[in-house]
Amino acid sequence: MRADELQRAGVQIVYGVSGLKTHAKICLVIRNEDGQLKRYCHLGTGNYNESTARLYTDISYLTSRPAYGADASLFFNAVTGRSKLTRFSKLVPAPTHMKPRLLELIAAEAKRAKNGEPASITAKINSLQDQQIIEALYQASKAGVKINLNIRGICCLKTTTLHKGRKEAKNIRVVSVIDRYLEHARIFSFHHGGSPLVFIASADWMTRNLDKRVELMIPVEDKPSRLQRQRQRLRHPQRRHLPPHPAQKRPKTLPHARTPPKTSPKSRQSPRPRTHHHLRTPHPKQLTAPPQQTNPHGHQPHATPAIPPKK
């Protein structure tokens, strides 16, 4: 419906490359300023969607640097069918160049670690599933690279903390942050010999993103926008806490949900087997009445809890 409305308003709609889903998030504005064309390029990790923008947390990058604007023009030419996705000056597109570039960056950190140099990789993504990327991370960890991963959803990499974990993952730390809003940003940071390389991207480290979609990985090169806060967030995600939402009030205790009276060892019933869950919810019967006690004299239990004998 909205596409028809845009077309009626005179907007030219292009649905992307045949056989590939266009998942990149990019906007290019070209202005005539003082007789010269100037490009403003906006690149991000989230969709241009007014609904998800209220629920997702994302990162965007707005720049007027000529190299980024030129790459953006080449990208739109490729998406509209006028050219092919080639190697750009700054932007790294998928499915042609993003995975090879990521593997190259991971291998470079592994090489530095083998030479005794500091090496680290920090990434915040939604999912990690691509087998080549996972194997490259294992090899980098084995070489001594410190790897910190913040993965909200699917993670097919096994750490040493899991049952039958991989020994190669001894230097890999994986956390998952679930907060008030959906964590949707993709941020990658490579130590790069003390001159960190920071990227944001529209793609997760999944085969469908890296091999079957049109995506973009964007280097953030200017020092004022080095994403220092984001990198700190990746290193210590557990230290960031949002205050409770005003609508989230402390639940009231039900008036009948009281603790059952203490009983003697003879009158205690055998403990009821429990199913182990992360969050244990009491059975409804436990909220309606206290457990019945067995009378030591052999009579049938009364409706009210038996009073334990005095010693």
What does this structure look like?
By secondary structure, this protein is an alpha/beta fold. It has one domain: Endonuclease, Chain A, CATH 3.30.870. It is built from seven helices and 13 strands. The strands form three sheets. Strands 1, 6, 7, 8, 9, 11, 12 and 13 form an eight-stranded mixed beta sheet that branches. Helix 3 (98-114) packs parallel to helix 4.
CATH fold topology: Endonuclease, Chain A
Shape: globular
Helix content: 10-25%
Number of distinct beta strands = 13
List the SSEs and their pairings.
Blueprint: H1 2-8, E1 21-22, E2 26-33, E3 36-44, E4 56-57, E5 60-63, H2 66-79, E6 92-94, H3 98-114, E7 120-125, H4 131-143, E8 146-151, E9 172-175, E10 182-183, E11 187-190, E12 197-201, H5 207-212, E13 213-219, H6 228-235, H7 284-288
Parallel strand pairs: 1-13, 4-10, 7-8, 8-9
Antiparallel strand pairs: 2-3, 3-5, 6-13, 7-11, 11-12, 12-13
